[in-house]
Amino acid sequence: MSHLSVTAGFLPLIDAAPLIVARELAFAEEEGLNLTLRRAPSWSALRDLLTFGQVDAASMLSPIPVAQALGLGGGAAALDALMVTSLGGEMIAFPDHIVRHLGGADRTDPVALRSALPMPLRIGVPFPFSIHAELLYRWLGEEITVQTVPPPLLPDAMAAGELDLFIVGEPWATGAADRGIASLLLPGTAIWRAPPDKVLAMRRDRAEADPDLTGRLMRAVWRACRWLRLRENRITAAEIMARSPYLDLPPDLIERAMDSGVEFFEGCATFPWRSQAEWIGARLARRHGLDVTQARHAAQAVFRSDLYRLHLRPAGADLPAASSRLEGAVSEPGLHPAAAGRVLLLPDRFFDGAVFDPDTA
């Protein structure tokens, strides 16, 4: 097998683990790839690196390709989400002066917390087009105002008294708690049990023009996700991610942060459900005054379940029978129809029990 060179971008977060593990544990090499990883300082910088072809792929916030398809964010090139690389992994944190407002509110109950939090809040998110922002809008209401701060800088913004609450991918919230800057409030999975946080993204023209490279990269990352599903591998994963080219943080911090609810593989976690993209697209459209029907159609086209089935069927990936589903309808782990046999799906409930039906939304 001839080796192909590919460069992928990431931000220093635990859900960059699939790319990092694919390189460091030779899953990429076994697929015939010379994988180089490039760390970016912010999501806007990483989006631009991918859009302008300075990296071939990226561990990307799932709403960015959707926003780009809707003409939001300024990027011209079409970006596609080839597969989901992590569900969850977000954490909400707040400073000590908010504690008195919570009183005896149950901190595991998003509904009770919403009524106890003082409004308005100065809220930090890592990027306007992020699952982080969508979770907060879904929980606290569309009237909230958010400000963008790159993930590693959110704790410092709170320490400077500029934020009352932030949501960020781990390990930055746990790190802020260790430094005494913030207390941990809720994981993102308390709002939506299985939010598609990061995706493996490529420019559409690149992914379609070189299907051999696309398939090799998808299989390498999928195999890394499969390896990460085993809890006994997390110590090793934390030690790898702690290295200076990657997160450059203590391994024990990374290992603890991996208990924030992030899921890399089980329950068809890597499958890019088109209904997830439609949920994102519909919400972005309403907030930005766009036609919701057109936005949903454009959004679902960027979650490439067709390429997932093409390139990962030979690897043995579980393939659901359909590429869309009712989002928020699974309350218990269970078997569901598949392209062949049955597949396990994990709970994906919203905190208030609502269900998103892509056929009627």
UniProtKB/TrEMBL annotation:
Signal peptide start-end: none
Keywords: Cell inner membrane, Cell membrane, Membrane, Transport
Keyword Cell inner membrane carried by entry: yes
Gene3D superfamilies named in the record: Periplasmic binding protein-like II
Keyword Secreted attached: no
Annotated localization: Endomembrane system
Tree of life domain: Bacteria
SUPFAM superfamilies xref list: Periplasmic binding protein-like II
Protein name: Nitrate transporter
Source organism of this protein record: Gemmobacter nanjingensis
